[in-house]
Amino acid sequence: AAHASELSFRTIEGLCLVIISPNVPGAMVQYAAECRTLGIPYIFDPGQQCARMSGDELREGITGSRLVMCNDYEFELIRQKTGLGEDAILEQTGTLVITRGEEGCSLYEKGSGSADATSRVDVKAITPHRIIDPTGVGDAFRGGFMKGMARGKPLNECAQLGSVAATYALEHLGGQSHAYTMKEFSDRYAE
User: Is the dihedral of CA 1, 169, 78, 36 positive or negative?
Assistant: First the structure.
């Protein structure tokens, strides 16, 4: 993290999507500015850094992003620090995803025309077979969600993929101890 601000997207070719996850706040703002300058779509996922970042830093990360992703607690911090609610955030980004633990997640998208209202779709969480450890559940959700994005899936399917991946993490000890085959994942997704 001490060298985070020394890294640059300018040295990497062929980027089609970036996720800016919790890091040094100044570096996160720098990455968002670089993505906007270079025309690289990005997901802004401030995570636990919401507590450390100022309202201006959060606003800088949100502005111009393709998607903002946070949990309900982090969203409340963003709202308090920036004064921006769902609709105001959607004026700065295309999509807002708020995860809500066992309640699933909510996807907010702004309408395509000036008269179009904001749409909200709620995606249910998968019922776990057992609950062992919540460590890494958010990261697993993001991984599944981004896999769906990489495959060009609609956002509600991305969220469903994220939910399945998150459930596997919840059912195992530690953030990276879970594993599954493609068939196991597909069968669980079909449920």
Answer: positive
Residue 49 structure tokens: 């850094």
139 is a catalytic site residue: yes
- Of residues 56, 87, 122, 139, which has the active-site annotation? 139
Strand 67-71 vs strand 18-20: parallel, antiparallel, or unpaired?
unpaired
pTM to 2 decimal places: 0.90
Tell me the C-alpha distance between 127 and 149, whole Å: 23
58 or 176, which is more confident = 58
Q: In what order do the strands lie in the sheet with 119-123?
A: 18-20, 42-44, 67-71, 95-99, 105-109, 119-123
Q: Which residue type does 190 have?
A: A
Tell me which amino acid residue 19 is.
I
CB neighbour list of residue 115: distance below 8 Å, 6 or more residues apart: none
